[in-house]
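WARN no homologs supplied; continuing
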Amino acid sequence: MRQSSAVSKVSVKPDWTAKVLALRERLRLNQTAFGSLLASSAMAVSRWERGAQEPPSHSFIEMGNLAGDPDCWYFWGRAGLRNEDVIKVMPGMRRRLRQAQSHEMEIVRAGSGEKKSIEKLQLVAIPLLKAVAASHGEKGDSIDLLHDAPAESVIAAPKEWCPHPSSTTCLRVQGHSMAPTIGDGYIVAVDSSQTDRSKLDGKIVIVWNKDAGLTVSRFRRYDRTETLQPENPRYQSITLGNKSSKWKVVAKVLWWIGKAP
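OK structure emitted
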């Protein structure tokens, strides 16, 4: 009697499905609450855990923030980040991350003489996106949803610098219109959850326009008039006027990093 040549196929789930499920169960969260922490839906979490869809890079990075050492390295690796990418932006991070799941780190600050003070510091990993915000008169990246941009590296920062970690990303600045405050080549950390124009008067923001792409500027409101003002007086302001819908505020700038002159 001839045996059937049909062989039942066994579905093998990717290893990240078990990691995502284990992290959620360790945090004692249902799929809705877990997804909320990652700016995603319960349906998305379900697809991740079933292996139907892989989480995007920004979700993997935030899972690393939630997981702590040593699991953070796995999740950051799935986002395309290497251990060296994290370590190079904050020397000694691997050793300090041994404080593990609470994200507590011992930071030793040198005082006068032999005196030293030790404090606990909570860190989060912020994705540095492959995206550029240009100054006035230059063309920035055309993407208007920052979380859609791929990450090239990660920056470790104190948690108190990032009021909404899951909405915080970093990108590079190109141009000189915000000098001397923010120079060409600086890296800015931005919060994409803070886009309410009524609360942004006088703040530095990232805006998007289909022609100019991403632009960094200072947002000003004068009665009913909204403008984007450069720090460098050699550049002209942009009046948003009645057609302000053409310009979209995509994030508020929290802080920036730049090389000393």
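The beta strands are 104-110, 116-134, 151-158, 168-174, 187-191, 204-209, 213-222, 225-229, 238-239, 248-257.
OK
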